[in-house]
Amino acid sequence: MSWLDAAPTMVLCGVLLILPGLPLTYLLGLRRLAMVAIAPVVVVALVSVTAIVAGKVGIRWSLPLVLAVFAGVSVVAGGVVLLLRRRLPQPAPGDGLPVVAAAAGGLAVALALGVLTVRAAISSPEELLTTDDSSFHYNAIAHILNTGVASTFRIDTLGVPGRVRGFYPAAWHDIGSLLAMVTGSSVPATANILSVTIALVVWPLGCVLLMRQLAGPSRSALALAGLLSVAFGAFPWELLGWGILWPNLLGLSLVPAGVAVVVSMTGLARQDVIGRGRAWLLAPVILTAIAIAHPNAVISLVAITVPAVVAGLARAAVRRYRAGRRSHAILLAAPIVLAAPAYWLVVVEWRVFSGPMSADSAPFESPSQALGEVLTGGTNHHDAGWVLAVLVVVGAVSCFRQRCHRWLVAGHAVSGGLYVLAAGVPGATRRIFTGFWYTDSHRLAAMLPITGVPLAVLGVLAVVSAVRAGLAPDGVLRRQRTVAWAAPVVAALGLLLVTGGLHHADHRDRVLAAYPKAAPLVDEDEHALFTRIGWRTEPGTIVAQMPYNGSPAVMALTRRQVLFPQLNLGRLTPDQVYLAQHLNQAASDPRVCEIVNRLQVRYLLTNDRARGNLWDGTAYPAPTAGFRQIDEGGSFRLYRVSPCDKAADSR
What is the pTM of this model? Predict the structure, then answer.
């Protein structure tokens, strides 16, 4: 399958991420740009909650179920609107068609540039990743398709009997399973297409909505926001190639829309297209969607918007104090004063987040180097983006000179400071602030474009304004619409020219980190064997293997259950551990066949790579062990666990 062949599936994916949410955002009173940009948040929230409830009550996960839920919620919401239409506020003012067209134009150019980058980095939608995290994400989708269970509280079992259940953010996997059901695409193709669509559709829409809240109905600002949404390497490109962190990609892609809602809640929006009342109604939806996409994205939203919340509370407290309502002023100011002690109590004393904060990634550079990377956009030793870096600085200076959006600069500084702590400051103390992101510099760097995109847009507008003022100090040219439109267009073309298509080569290289074209873990012959396992084995049986040789991909390619479907060994069951150590001794160890027959482990797939003692039982069985080889490809061999067939027949 080529990317051209996958174009209809990508369009359908975009439709699934937006269309089901439009009736609800319309009934809420949002119009045009805001209605469309908030729709993916509603879709993610409702899909995720439906999956949890369905898993709880025992309803099988399916597309008809999800469609019925969306239809039912829309009908109920419509009934409420009809009953309360006289009490509800008027719909939010929608932007005119010229403004919407400008935003759409910027988004279209960003989409075209993004598609070029994707084609340069990912040779085919079917391309298989064999990174540490990809096997879990692939097999989580396969697990949902096999079992009909998509709950975020049950997904991490991955179909292995005896695995304990716990929380794992499943929004990305839930949507991926629905896309696979609709299109019939393979799990790898579904994963690639979904992630690319999130990066090139959901994220840019959120960036444009945030810019609309900051700059009002400025056609230039909205067009530039769409264009520059794909200009920063740290996001979305870094998270398309690092990890692989697809759930984190989804969570952060929703954050700009979340910031736009917070701007409404705090009264800091310019010609608000959401409205404060609607923003409060949307707040729990936003938090639910982002939390089930990935919890650390909620913390990213909080970290970036703390300055906006402080500014909003401070303004409200001052107004009430001057009006003589001192008790109200004190209540509004209290969160500002108590925030730091409360944070210390929850994080340090009570250790509520001790789980993620126990992880640590060692710093790899000095604090000054990390700060330089924040300022130049060259995080994690990537190339500096000097033009964008200058525009961000100019935008920040413009915010201070015009006394507007200073909170945005502060939010950008918070993200930069967190990155510096993770990348350049040694010691365990830094985890108090960076542990929510596992002190991972890549995840923290991905926060910078959330504020960097609007700051860069404001920087471009400031430069254009200064140039126009210099060319026409008497204001003659300012009154000419042609010049007013031409200046931003020329600026955009200039950006594309001087940055090499908005740093196309750097973005390609970032994505290529997860899609190696040389020395892949699984070669063509082995990939072909993995695919044949789908008809070499029976449904309901389990294939035992060692997870570090690429073999978990069997489950993604064939939907056949494997014994070790992921690389996280922290939650192995005693049965898994015993088979890992002793499976090839089935002919002489009765306990092996007892476990094999109870779990329905009928096959062994191995390439006998170097392994520690834990995996000795998955090595090539001895000729006298009674295993029957039924296929091979590359260095892999597929065996039937024949000694246990005899044990099963004798029962």
Answer: 0.94
